[in-house]
Amino acid sequence: MSRLPVLAGLLGGVVAIAGAGYLAGTRVQSAAETAARTSPPPPSVITVPVERRVLSTEVITRGTVQFGAAREVTLPSSSLKAGSRIVTATTPSGTEVKEGDVALAISGRPVFILQGAQPAYRDLGPGTSGADVLQLEAALVRLGFDPGPVDGLYDEATGKAVERWYASAGWSAQGPSLEQIAAWRAAETDSRQGGSERLDAEESVRAARAALDGAAAKLRLAELAVKSAQSGDAAARATKTRERLAAEADVARLEGALTVALAEARAAELLLNEARDGRGAPATASELAVLEAEVGHAASLVTLSKTEIDTARATARENYLAATTEAAAKRRIAAEALRAKPPDKAASDNARAEADAAQARADAVTRTGAADEAVKLRALDAAEAQLAVVRARLADARSGRVRPASPGELAGKTAAVAAANRLVATATNDLSTARAALVTFLTPSAFNGLSVAGIELDAARLDVQSARIGLQIADRRALLAAGRPPLPAGAGAPIGFQIPADEILFFPALPLRLGAARVRVGDRVEGPVLTVSTSSLVASGAVNAADAKAIRVGAAVRIDLADLGVTADGSVTLVAESPGTQGVDSQRFYIEITPAGVPASIAGASVVLTIAITSTAGEVLAVPVAALSVGADGVSRVHVQSAAGGPRAVAVRPGLAARGLVEVAPISATLSAGDLVVVGAPPTEKRTSK
User: Which residue from 498, 412, 490, 524 is spatially nearest to 185, judged by alpha carbons?
Assistant: First the structure.
């Protein structure tokens, strides 16, 4: 029994030793095995996929979201108001105001907000005009108050629109002040007096000028009279002769006109009688014989008139030639008298006067002949008309046609007779007047002589001198009257409603947002009263000079506010032209971005602004810059890893590079988004280990 435990112990020891040996054998490795286990894996190609995306170069900076740039507002003074201006009402900060709103009240009067580029700088009232009035009228139209024509003139219609506007807002429009009314009335009175004086002075000037013109005309006539008297009786007789011959020609012409008028009157009566007698029976044989005789008589009258016209023309021509020949002979005599030694001036003057008289007779003969010819031509016309009438009557009588005259025809012919009789009466009166004028030349008249003409000349000279002195006095009165002030603007109508300069504020763009109040109720207005900004949010920041040159107005911007999880788009609306503006550092440039679709709650937040500088027109193929290589031929290539074998080279045209990527366009082969391009390759040399 004692040998079993010993064997069991030996057996257990052998098993333990075998297990320890096995365990030691599994843990012990050779140097080769260790090196093989710790060596790097075989190298492989590194690839990335081709992307389709928009590439852009960017400027990244920080900015602050706030409402539009704030500006201080100062009220202009008004000449319509006296005394201190005290703030009596304000509007809470942050209020959005639009056109027609009241921003505050000064001394119980409103300060309205209106849209317009021209700032308020003066009182507006009847008679004023300009760009500020034009934009006031445009604002009244937008507010629903018709100011009449929008023409930049503040008239009565504009004042009534202002009154309605103020009343609709619960205020009273500013009427004329007592000083304005008093000044306007005084100016109106003074202007009326000045106008009366100006009219009187102008009338005096006109009367003085008329008197001077009349005196000058009399002086000219007196000088002519003296010259006429100095030329002697021959010239006076020649003048009288010319005037008498002209009067005789007028009488002859008017006698011919009377003859024609009588003939036309007789013809008109004949036509009227024929129209009245047209109601009878057809003409008998004896009546036809009478009509035929009348036709023959009328035809002979036509022939006789033509003969008389030819005879009158020949006679007038002969008389004119005789008179002009006589005048030429007298002028030769006058010239010879002057060339004689010594010259015989008296004989020359007489010959010249007789030559003038002969020429006057020739002219009178011409006028008489023309008048006589005109008379005979009218007589020929009347004869031909009469011939046509009797021929028509004879033709009607022979054909048996008898057409009664209509009432209208009878009335027309009756009127023609009346008109012809009036012409006869006029011609008779004209002839009587011409004959009376001719009689004055046929009666002897006394010749006053040179002494009387000299006295009249001296009197005319005195009259001219007096008229000149009167004109000088009238001119001085007119100058004094012209210095009186004219009636003020708006005269003739009462002064209407006005807008004081401190009751209206124009802003180029509305609505606006009121900032922190610069005054409180009870403060005296002495400086800025309001701070306003645009009601839309903007993001502002600053960039260095190089970035400022690259950024353009209108460039796209991405706005990121990571803390609030807000991302929005925007665009650059302002790049400062010089550094240090808008409170930024003196070496940096202020920029302003207008965001789209951001909540007002982020006002005051700090944001990251990513500004696009240069961008592709749309999505393009893009690869990492490391995937691009340039061969010896200067062509850029990328290597696309294919599933079947090694990479294939694709020639490409590189474009914009940004953010480690570059735009590529394939030239000789296809390249698509998702293709794997090689950006790294295994080394070509073997490593050696020490």
Answer: 490
Query: How much is the pLDDT for 480?
Result: 59
Coil, strand, or helix at residue 268? helix
The CA distance from 442 to 254, in Å, is 19
Let me know: does 438 contact 255? Beta carbons within 8 Å.
no
pLDDT at 56 over 90: no
**Quick one: which of 184, 160, 181, 152 has its CA closest to 499?**
160
The residue written with tokens 């009232």 in the block is 125
Compute the distance between CA of residue 48 and CA of residue 622 in angstroms, rounded to an integer: 11
Please name the residue that has the structure tokens 């995306």: 53
Tokens read off for 471? 């004109």
Q: Is 490 left (phi over 0), alpha (psi -120 to 50) or beta?
A: left
> Six-digit token pair at 346?
């008296």
Backbone angles phi, psi at 303, to 5 degrees: -65, -40
Specify which residues 592 forms β-bridges with: 540, 574
pLDDT at 536: 74
Average pLDDT over residues 540-546: 88
Q: Which of 613, 616, 615 is nearest to 546 (CA)?
A: 613
Q: What percent of the chain has pLDDT over 70?
A: 68
Could you tell me if 116 and 508 are in contact, meaning their C-beta atoms sit under 8 angstroms apart?
yes
Length of the chain: 690
Per-residue H/E/C for 436-459: HHHHHHHCCCCCCHHHHHHHHHHH
Side chain identity at 59, as an amino acid letter? V
Residue 393 near residue 291, CB atoms below 8 Å: yes
| Residue 652 near residue 667, CB atoms below 8 Å | yes
Give the pair of three-digit tokens for residue 479. 């100058």
Give Dmax over CA atoms of the chain in angstroms.
216
Per the DSSP assignment, residues forming a β-bridge with 601 are none
